[in-house]
Amino acid sequence: MSITPSDSRNIDLLINFIEQKKLTPVLGKELYKYSGKDDLLPIEDLLSAKLLEMHDSADQLLPSLTATINYLIKEKEQDKDFIVQDLLSIIQKNPLQLPLLTEFLKVDGLNYYINTIIYSNYLESSIEMIRKKKPAYIDFSLKAEKNSDSGDSEKYQDPFIFNVFGSLQNTIDPALSEEDMMEFVGSFKERLEKFNCLNIINTLKNRPLLFIGCAFPDWMVRFFLRLLSMSPMNEWANRKIFVVNDSTEKIHLNFLKKYKVIQFDMNTGDFINELVERWQSKNPQKISPKKIFLSYSSADQEAAETLKSKIEAIGNIECWYDNEKLNAGDEYEPKIYDNLQNADLCIPLISANSLNFVNSFVQQEWVTAYNKSIVKKDFLMPVIIDETTRRDEKIPRYFSKFTFGIIPMGDPDPQFIQLIKETLHLS
């Protein structure tokens, strides 16, 4: 991915605002993509398909979750409250990994989030996993007697979320349909002022805003951006409003050029990768070792331990693999996933053992790592540790674009050790 000089300057400007604790991101549905078999897939597609299946309408081809909900309400005469319960049931039964969101949350200078998604538990749990802190939140509601405000936003150090369309988990009236969304935005400013939510108003009105993943319907774009900015459009040039206009979900924002809105016409994943890399380069973690996740079959443990010892001899590197760090009583999958998401590099150990379908969890780790590599470049470094060839038909197709290291029995040569140093930017 090449970054234009203009985009490069604008990303640096964003980082300056983040360092000054001024920037507020507005998060949309394009950040909420989960790890599928070979790619990142929208959560809304899964929710929509599961909803239709629950209501004997799996043959319906509908373009969005809101279209599905409208269909169930109008054509199947389903009650909204039952649909909310159905969605909650689907979410509970489908814990998902969200590489785009978790990567974005690594920009730890951001603590104040405006969330436009009603399935907010994914954001809350992701923040808690990455930041090791449980976020505070406010769920906007049309029916609540009071929408409580937060503390002093200028001094706010812990993560905070404002769910602008409510929450499936916490409000009785989340915005399920486009009509609901219109009702929310129509009452938004009035209710915030009525309940004296000064911190939220000031945050929206006075801080630079970053709209990321917000592929709203065309008819809502102007109204929504104008409303959340809390200021006339002719003042936007002084406010600094940034929009990531994802090329895969292009929305028509040409009118924003007139108002000096800064647009990044790039894939959301590419933008996040660039932002996180630049942020971490300017704000390195103090004496924090680089983390490498080794993904291997238990039958190859000896090779994994050999590789681990040779890599850690470099210094300032910690290799993690499940057999060593999981303690009695630990939950198996969540701990592995946390360590994989927090790793700087993943090395899959490919062998006849790990390609055996009996070892399905190893290959699940590979899928998760591959999906993270879409966001974080140079994250995957597959190696072959036995007589398996690069063209073995059991090797997953998504590995085909990577160069394979050859490390017999996990014993790396000096060239491979140097490659790790270069990849992790170690001297």
Please count the helical segments.
16
Q: What's the main sheet like?
A: 7 strands, parallel
Q: Would you identify the regions where 5 or more consecutive residues have pLDDT less than 50? A: 324-330
| Run of helices and strands | HEEEHHHHEHEEHHEHHEEHEHEHHEHEEH
3D structure, described in words:
- The chain is of the alpha/beta class and 427 residues long.
- Helix content is 41%, strand content 12%.
- The protein has helices spanning 5-19, 43-54, 65-74, 80-93, 99-104, 121-131, 178-194, 198-206, 218-229, 236-239, 268-282, 301-312, 322-325, 332-341, 360-375, 414-423; strands at residues 24-27, 33-35, 40-42, 112-115, 136-139, 160-163, 209-212, 241-244, 262-264, 290-295, 317-320, 345-350, 383-384, 405-406.
- It has a seven-stranded parallel beta sheet, sandwiched between helices. Strands 11-10-12-13-14 form a five-stranded parallel beta sheet, with helices on both faces.
- Strand 2 and strand 3 form a beta hairpin.
- Helix 2 (43-54) packs across helix 4 (80-93) and helix 14 (332-341) packs parallel to helix 15 (360-375).
- The longest helix has 17 residues, at 178-194.
- The two termini are 25 Å apart.
- Mean pLDDT is 82; it is low at 324-330.
Features:
427 residues, alpha/beta, 14 strands
Structure summarized in a few sentences:
This protein has about 425 residues and is α/β, with parallel strands linked by helices. It is built from 16 helices and 14 strands. The longest helix is centred in the middle third of the chain and has 17 residues, at about 180-195.
